[in-house]
Amino acid sequence: MKAVFINDHRFVHSNADSKVYTTGTLDSDFWIRYTVFFDHLTVVGRGTVVDGQYSNENLSSAPDVYFHLLFDIKGGKDYFLKEKYIFNQLYSIIKSADFVVIRVPSSIGNIAAQVCLKLGKKYLVEVVGCILDVSNTYGNPLMKLIGRLSYYRMRKTVKHSEGAIYVTERFLQKRYPTQKPSISASNVRLSTGNPLVLTDRCSRLRACHQHITIGTIGSVDLKYKGHHVLFYAASLLKRNGFNFTIKIVGGGNPDNLKQLAEKLEILNNIEFLGKVAKGDQIFHFLDKIDLYVHPSLTEGLPRAVIEAMSRGCPILASNAGGLPELISEDFVHNVGDYHTLSEQLMRMVDSPNIMYEQATINFEKSKEFDCEVLDQRRNMYINKLLKNI
After folding, report:
1. Cβ neighbour number for residue 344 with a 10 Å cutoff
2. C-beta of residue 370 within 8 angstroms of C-beta of residue 353
3. Widest distance between CA atoms in the chain
4. How confident is the model at residue 71 (pLDDT cuts 50, 70, 90)?
5. pTM of structure
6. DSSP secondary structure letter of residue 296
7. Residues 291, 324: Cα–Cα separation, whole Å
């Protein structure tokens, strides 16, 4: 059987080895969730070409996976100006497929849904974020208008799907409802529950009262990651005499954030660590911090927060997307509210018992996201869906 997976993700084709790499999390391991059911999976997304070798850590090529990349689609206005071209590219691929998966938010995915409706093809959606929140982080009125249009298109895509897999338990389901049975299953892949992790965390927290190490993960050149919110909160923390270091993991150019940190007189308190490989290296980073902060302006259900939970980190986060589903209510702040975030930071640092308590709560919560539990839930759902269609 043939399946097609459609999204806006940007893949990289390397001329050096003729393999495809991912700029995000759609690596070779990800496709197993569908190749276990299908012997031929075509992946449609955007594409760029590099002549040299790309990072092996980001390999997306895998057995039984074939890529149809749209190299002419850069994003933004291309989705609208070249909509007919995208439609035609998708038509023949979807027509020959036995099963269609559309990951949204995705402009290409919304066009794919139109093709499916025209051909009478049923499709599954993976709902991983909210396009409306993303567009609202831009000051450009045109971008907000495009975001609003994309929001209604995405609602239509999800509404007419044969089924939906949401990464949240409630948030995305409310904004993008489907008329068919759905499940909640995060995209994170973790093996959770090792009690030594929590033991080591509590030992670290006992020794951190003189100097607190705060960690956060997110691309440093994306405003909606909310680093500026953390910086403003940290400036208030410093004025109140707290001794801290903020360690930031994430790719991109940090110059704008460095300028802001210098303006707020906290530059000496910030360490930009750049991009860190997933898996053991990320876990090592999380094990060396005392407190994790996730101040995003928009989210689905962030992998980084669940990973921090699995390492027993006390966590403070915004109320973007599904974050309130993960974190205790007293440690969630409204998007952009750095005053509340600062108060929460001071409260947590001043009370070791609160940090111990939250470390335990978060560690136990992370067990719900164990890869075996999620894989079983997802596989049962897809298997039932295939039988129905």
Report:
1. 20
2. no
3. 65
4. very high
5. 0.89
6. -
7. 17
